[in-house]
């Protein structure tokens, strides 16, 4: 199974929420994914790296993660996702679960 790596940056919006420690949530299993959040000095941006076996959905990944960033105000972070055919709804859920693991 050939994997595709998608990398992009998103400008943070809304009330900023910074990642203060590293978080890992989820597992790479069929229809699922793992999310790794870590702090990064990106001047208000999010750096995103997605490794997925599914090709041709770069714009969908960008839209799902941009929507998550806009809703949560997450900034100055590195988001790494290791995907195994998760649906956009599962991606959004795992991102929110990872964010919930951050200390308040």
Structural account:
Subunit of malonate decarboxylase, it is an acyl carrier protein to which acetyl and malonyl thioester residues are bound via a 2'-(5''-phosphoribosyl)-3'-dephospho-CoA prosthetic group and turn over during the catalytic mechanism. Its main location: cytoplasm. It comes from Rhodopseudomonas palustris. One of its GO terms (molecular function) is acyl carrier activity. The protein has helices at residues 58-72, 88-100, and strands at 4-11, 17-18, 23-26, 32-39, 45-52, 74-75, 77-84. It has 104 residues and is of the alpha/beta class. It has a single domain, classed as Ribosomal Protein S5, domain 2 (2-Layer Sandwich), CATH 3.30.230. The strands form 2 sheets. Strands 1-5-7-4-3 form a 5-stranded mixed β-sheet, covered by helices on one side. It is globular, with a radius of gyration of 13 Å. The protein starts with a strand and ends with a helix.
Quick overview:
Keywords: Cytoplasm, Phosphoprotein. The chain is α/β, with parallel strands linked by helices and 104 residues long. Helices cover 27% and strands 38% of the residues.
Write the layout of secondary structure elements.
Elements: E1 4-11, E2 17-18, E3 23-26, E4 32-39, E5 45-52, H1 58-72, E6 74-75, E7 77-84, H2 88-100
Parallel strand pairs: 2-6, 5-7
Antiparallel strand pairs: 1-5, 3-4, 4-7
Helix pairs in contact: 1-2
Characteristic terms for this protein:
104 residues; alpha/beta; Ribosomal Protein S5, domain 2; 5-stranded mixed β-sheet; two-stranded parallel ribbon; 7 strands; cytoplasm; Malonate decarboxylase acyl carrier protein
